[in-house]
Amino acid sequence: MRLNMKSIAIEYYEGLIGLGKSNNEINKNLGNRIQRIGREKFIKDYPLSALDVVNHRTFWEICMELDIVEKPFFCNDEEYNDFEKKLHEILTSMMNYGEKSSYDKEDIKKLFRQYRVLV
Questions:
Q1: CA gap 75, 32 in Å, rounded
Q2: Which helix (H) or strand (E) holds 19?
């Protein structure tokens, strides 16, 4: 396990759950999304569970924090390794095309399994 993923997941969960008490609707929505996932499932499936809560760019940043990817999201494509190129392609498509994207969260999970990330 890279870094101490469990402690990072717990800290991230607790930060997000606190947003549900905010007066800001955007923050409340984030807090409600994390609450629907549940603490144990969020921590167990982290960082993939974050895909249900945060935007795709933030997911990349989480992956950087966990040393899953090395390069920033906005980087020259030639600098990415094969895993990063494919993940970037999937996330960019999902950001640009939303539900019309040819990719979904399952494609990210498959990519993580294919490259044995988090195994």
A1: 33
A2: none
